[in-house]
TrEMBL record:
Segments forming a coiled coil: none
Organism annotation: Agathobacter ruminis
Any one GO MF annotation of this record: lipid binding
Keywords on record: Lipid-binding
UniProt name for this protein: DegV family protein
Keyword Cytoplasm carried by entry: no
InterPro entries, alphabetized: DegV, DegV_C, DegV_domain_contain
Family annotation (Pfam families): DegV (PF02645)
Amino acid sequence: MIKIVSDSTCDLSPELVERYQIEVIPLHVLLGTEEYLDGRNITPDEIYAWADKNKTTPKTSAVSMEDASTAFAEILENYDGIVAFSISAGMSTTNNVLRLAAEEIGASDKVRVIDSMNLSTGVGHLVVEAAILAAKGASLDEIEKAVLDYRPRVRASFVIDTLVYLHRGGRCSGMAALAGGMLKLHPKIVVKDGAMLVDKKYRGKLPAVTLNYAKDMEEQLLRAKPDRVFITHSGTDPAIVESVRSYLESLHHFDEIIETHAGSVVCSHCGPGTLGVLFID
């Protein structure tokens, strides 16, 4: 049997992690001199409070070599191999840490490390697909080939309520051009080739903007892989989330519409009020 592992930026809920028997290794969040583990001992609301008080974006860092090598070694006591996913290598050194951890324990032949070239449930889609294959008894080669085929088809995008966090962190190409209109624009951020880019720019109140953002993708949504679509947000008004869910339900296309809350690392850079609809084209 093959075990599926992901770093914590996959933003899969505890229920999904349990359902698909996924092992999650946390990234680190630094609030000043205090260090926390994503999804373990820090919440997005605590991060927002700290960031607003200190007028800066928290720092985040890759999974630790110790955590990764320990997890790999323990898993390989009971499994034949591991497929491990990381947030885009262009956004974090986590991918390299996972590779080095496999080398450190002499298991490079048993551990396939996949650069998702994505973030949040853009990673999560690949992780779930891998877990489904692993449960069916697929081999390392079969799982790796399948997820690499899916990888360029993952569509990850978000509409942002406040540009403050992305601007502070310098994480998104095109932020300088938007800085002058920070309080007026709600940009659509897309992940392309492993990087975050500013796409369409919306104006107006967030409820209308968020629904329009989802509707603008209707053509793609109707040809998407129908198994699941994620609504992933960073603490968005439940009424806004429900309006997007209702719209997706009205398409009568997806077998499952899954709501997840973004983890601490993603929330650190996107801020509150962010919402994305993520699917496989």
